[in-house]
Write a structure and sequence with these properties.
80 residues; binds zinc ion; 24% helix; elongated; 2 helices
Length: 80
């Protein structure tokens, strides 16, 4: 169960993959798998929501970045 068979683009064929030691702190949810034949690494779950970095960046940006859909009004700046 720990060796899912997936297509390896390096081998050009289906290969058993294993989860390599994760150095990114993903733990059991690490999306990284490595081909047991050639060692080529792939990521599971290529959907954007599955990537840990993307939601973190947008969440941090939202409160600081966009106060209104119109943004700062350039005409006001020039008048003042
Ligand atoms: Zn990982
Ligand atoms: Zn391979």
């Amino acid at each position: 169960m720990s060796h899912p068979v997936l297509f390896c683009s390096d081998c050009g064929d289906d290969r058993p993959f294993e989860r390599p030691p994760c150095s990114d702190g993903h733990g059991v949810e690490c999306p990284e798998l490595a081909c047991t034949v050639c060692g080529s690494a792939i990521l599971l779950g290529t959907d954007p929501p599955a990537l840990p970095a993307t939601p973190v960046v947008s969440a941090a940006r939202a409160p600081a970045g966009a106060p209104s859909p119109h943004g700062p009004d350039p005409a006001r700046h020039r008048a003042a």
